[in-house]
Design goal:
Elements (H helix, E strand, L loop, with lengths): L2 H4 L27 E5 L3 H4 L9 E5 L2 H6 L14 E3 L4 H4 L7 H8 L7 E3 L9 E3 L2 H8 L4 E2 L2 E2 L6 H11 L4 E5 L13 H13 L3 E3 L11
Parallel strand pairs: 1-2, 1-8, 2-3, 3-4, 4-5, 8-9
Antiparallel strand pairs: 6-7
Helix pairs in contact: 6-7, 7-8
Length: 218
């Protein structure tokens, strides 16, 4: 079993990729463990093919959709190392979502990677409970809203960044993730910036593609 499961270049229009995970990091720091967190934005998702990250994680029905493409058109690794489906069941199987029935059947299959969920689902063999309590107690122990412990998660990417911090990765690459202004994902940017800052504060190197809008002042 994967120990992580047990633990609960240059592209047109994208810019140069800094593919240093196994050997060196920014400033010459040795980097030994890297995870790529992968979204749906194809312009920078293409960089995954050039990444030497040890692990690659994605979310929701991304793997299922990529599997349906001809092999030469696929942008993900197969298999990925983890999938995060952290929505409520009624949301991720909502009938207005295209191919929701196909996704439900896909979730019920055996997979060689964990699917992180809010709770283990007996009908989803690969489901693993996301370690929310460990994440919050370890990473947010000094954060309070009034007298109550604070939490700040606005998207699946936030939970993925948090788990990368909990696992003490040396480097995190964000590929295919934009949260652009004027899109339905814009509201998620604040949470991603918070968790990127937390990773940097813990000495974890973070790679953003040159065109990425995250953590960009203008």
């Amino acid at each position: 079993m994967d120990p992580e499961r047990q633990l609960d270049v240059s592209l047109m229009g994208v810019g140069a990729f800094h593919p240093c995970p196994h050997f060196y990091g920014i400033g010459g720091r040795t980097v030994t463990r890297t995870v790529a967190i992968v979204g749906f934005y194809e312009d920078t998702l293409k960089l995954l093919k050039h990444s030497q990250a040890d692990k690659a994680w994605t979310m929701n029905h991304h793997v299922m959709l990529d599997e349906k493409k001809p092999p030469e058109e696929r942008l993900l690794r197969h298999p990925m190392d983890a999938v995060f489906e952290l929505h409520e069941r009624d949301w991720y199987l909502k009938k207005e979502t295209p191919s929701y029935q196909e996704y439900e059947e896909w979730l019920k299959l055996e997979h060689p990677f964990p699917i992180y969920m809010q709770e283990v689902d007996p009908g989803i063999p690969a489901s693993v409970r996301y370690p929310l309590e460990a994440v919050c107690s370890t990473l947010l122990g000094g954060f309070y809203r009034g007298d109550e412990p604070g939490r700040f998660f606005k998207s699946s990417v936030d939970y993925m960044l948090a788990l990368a911090a909990l696992r003490n990765y040396d480097r995190v690459e964000l590929l295919g993730i934009e949260a652009e202004t004027g899109t339905e994902y814009e509201y998620q940017r604040e949470g991603m910036s918070f968790w990127i800052g937390l990773l940097l504060g813990r000495g974890i190197e973070v790679y953003l593609p040159p065109t990425c809008k995250l953590c960009k002042a203008i």
